[in-house]
Structure formats: structure tokens, C-alpha cells
Amino acid sequence: MQLKAPAIVLAARAHGENAVILRMLTQEAGLVAAYVAGGQGRRLRPVVIPGNAIEADIRARSASQLPFGKVELVTSRAPWLNEPLPAAAILWVTALTATALPERNPYPSLYDALGGLLDAICHAPAARGWAPALLSYEALVLRELGYGGMKPEAGDLPQTLEALRKLAPALERYLLADRHGDAMSARGRLLERLARIA
Q1: Which of 8, 63, 78, 188 is most buried, judging by how many CB atoms fall within 10 Å of its CB?
Q2: Distance CA 87, CA 80 (A)
Q3: The CATH number, out of the four listed (3.30.460.80, 2.40.50.140, 1.20.120.530, 2.40.240.50), of the domain defined by the range 2-75
Q4: Torsion angle of alpha carbons 33, 178, 140, 127, nearest 10°?
Q5: CB 88 within 8 A of CB 127
């Protein structure tokens, strides 16, 4: 495998003393995991934050080997991780994507939608500006993975919040059942914060 492409960081797990296993979403290869040497170091730690847009250079000698990756920062989402509501949204959508998608299957529409959603979360003046996009993204993930269904209608923030609640059983049953980790708790925290402002 040889791939040099823009990517969105979904998750980084410490590996050994200084490296990380980085899970990222690319347009042409889908979800890809790679070993990034120095990922816990001072230079790369700010790069491997969930939500960041990066340029990834990924190489593996064989299909069965975990690829090695080199990454460079393109767009940082780190400033928004200090704000409770945007942080909860960024952590939820990256956790959902990292947990639900199979590796190395391209989903170009999800890549584009996730990039747009992250931009909206970071640049909309309020959650009212990005909550409908979050609802659309969750419904798109379900559709792209073959679980179809119509997107619940978004309206004002209380209506969008109710539509997000209605999607929870499908997400939990079809996408996150029998998965390690607790991605739905990240969604629960996000919905609690949205409810406070609704």
C-alpha cells in the first residue's frame, strides 16, 4: 500500500513509548490505520488530534502489515477542543466514524460530509448553525453503510435535537453494537449540552 492524500484524523492511540496508531479517513482509501513514529512527541502531538485535517503519506510493504505513516498538519481543530460544545461534537463525529466504518473501503461522500461538518462546528456562530448538519451526517453514515431510512426532519434546535434522539436506536443497534469503546456516551454528552441551550 502506498498512499499520499489529505486525511481527517479520527483517533490516535498510544503505542510504545513515543508512537501512535493513527486512524484517519481519506477520500480514496476510506478509513486507514497507520503506525506514526513520534506521534506522542512534542512536534506531532498537536497534529494527531481528532478532527484535524492532515496530509498523510502512508506506506506498507505488504497488505497484511500495518502501514507506516508520516503526517503534516493542514488545519487544526485544537482551539475548538477547549470549548465544551464544539469539543463534544468533534469527539462524537470522529468516534462515530472511527468505530462504524470498515477499514480501506472508500466513502468519498462521508469524507466530504465530515470535512464540511467539522468546518461548520468550528466556524458557525452557534450550535443552531451546525446541529442540522450533524443530523444529516449521522443519517448519511447509516445510509452509506446500508441501513437506509429517511433522514429525520431538522427544524429549529429543539426539533433537531428530537430528531437526533430518534436516530440513537439505529446508531446503537446497527453501527455501534458489539464495538469496543463507548462512542454512544460521547453522543450522550453532546446531546446533554445541546439540550441546555435548546
Answers
A1: 8
A2: 6
A3: 2.40.50.140
A4: -90
A5: no
Phi-psi region of 96 (alpha: psi -120 to 50; beta: other; left: phi over 0): alpha
pTM: 0.93
Mean pLDDT of 143-163: 87
CA 32 from centroid of its chain's CA atoms: 12
| Amino acid letter for position 192 | E
Which residue matches cell numbers 498510544? 14
pLDDT value of residue 148: 79
Count of CB atoms situated within 10 Å of the CB of 114:
22
Instruction: Give the C-alpha distances (Å, rounded to integers) separating 111 from 15, 37, 82, 99.
Output: 26, 25, 24, 15
